[in-house]
Amino acid sequence: MREVDATIARRLDSGVPLVGEVARYIIASGGKRLRPVLLLLTCGALGCTDAQRFNLAAVVEFIHTATLLHDDVVDESTANEVFGNPASVLVGDFLYSRAFQMMVETGSMRVMQILADATNVIAEGEVLQLMNIRDTALDEAAYLRVIRSKTAKLFEASCRLAAVLAGSPAAVEAACAEYGQSLGTAFQIIDDVLDYEGDAAELGKNLGDDLREGKVTLPLILAMQRGTPDEAALVRRAIESGSTDDLPAILQLVRDCGALQQARGVASDQARRAVDALQGFAANTYTESLLELSAQLLQRRS
């Protein structure tokens, strides 16, 4: 990761100072670097030491950061508050274009295909989520479609890229992709659960932000299914209005009706799928870390 961070710092260099300032701000506040970590761990599990792994790890972080910047404009938060809409959108565009410059350097059409497809699917997921804002009829299947596009796709691409760099056969590449998609799906479900049970200071955002933005996530979908008609109506009104006046009652409801526990169960199923995908991989410290990551993800609180 030191090599990846050095690559990120070097490739953020631009003759336009604001570009580097905004990009460094959002990357520094982005936190976990989970996607590049996944790419490096998967390379290790497959015995791949190709130097391009550092370059591609930086690429997936740039793509992730670009989506964060564009999200901030849609959600009117974070970088948008600091730098404004124009800078957030345009620096996001810079990061996308820099990522594509870097992926061309690999000279691999397969690498470019994976990342181009992933970027397109992520954009579709963002649009789907926008279309679903304040839609109280959204069901679990539609919710999963959004998060598999918006979040899990880049996890999948990160792991798939490692298999391509390693020259792995198609079956191994498919297993890596399955691991990444399942892990990414579990990650987003837990993220949505934490919006109703986490610690605001640890999360870096206020509880109920998803509700305020009209995002219909799995805890709310399950609460509307499991609650009484009056409780379901309470949740629907809050989603449709974007009001958090009833947030304390909704927080209590999602806990008491078992919605959070059930959502964590769905995440656990996805984490088990991720573990199953690695069956047959070489037993080494990298594979062990990928397996441990699946378990640790379910315990996260921020």
Give the strand content: under 5%
The DSSP helix count reads 16
Biggest sheet overview: none
Shape: globular
Number of domains: 1
Cα-atom Rg, whole angstroms?
19 Å
DSSP summary, beta strand count: 0
Average pLDDT figure? 91
Low-confidence regions? none
Give the topology string: H per helix, E per strand.
HHHHHHHHHHHHHHHH
Structural class: mainly alpha
Give a structural overview.
The protein has helices at residues 2-11, 17-30, 34-45, 52-75, 79-83, 85-104, 109-132, 140-165, 170-197, 200-203, 209-212, 218-226, 229-241, 247-256, 259-277, 285-297. It has one domain (2-297): Farnesyl Diphosphate Synthase, CATH 1.10.600. It is 78% helix and 0% strand. The protein is built from 16 helices and no strands. Helix 8 crosses helix 9 and helix 12 (218-226) runs antiparallel to helix 13 (229-241). The chain has 302 residues and is mostly helical.
For the structure shown, list the relevant keywords.
302 residues; mainly alpha; Farnesyl Diphosphate Synthase; 16 helices; 78% helix; 0% strand
Set out the fold topology.
Layout: H1 2-11, H2 17-30, H3 34-45, H4 52-75, H5 79-83, H6 85-104, H7 109-132, H8 140-165, H9 170-197, H10 200-203, H11 209-212, H12 218-226, H13 229-241, H14 247-256, H15 259-277, H16 285-297
Helix pairs in contact: 1-4, 2-4, 2-6, 3-4, 3-8, 3-16, 4-6, 4-7, 4-8, 7-8, 8-9, 9-15, 12-13, 12-15, 15-16
Short description:
The chain is mainly α and 302 residues long. The chain has helices spanning 2-11, 17-30, 34-45, 52-75, 79-83, 85-104, 109-132, 140-165, 170-197, 200-203, 209-212, 218-226, 229-241, 247-256, 259-277, 285-297. It is built from 16 helices and no strands.
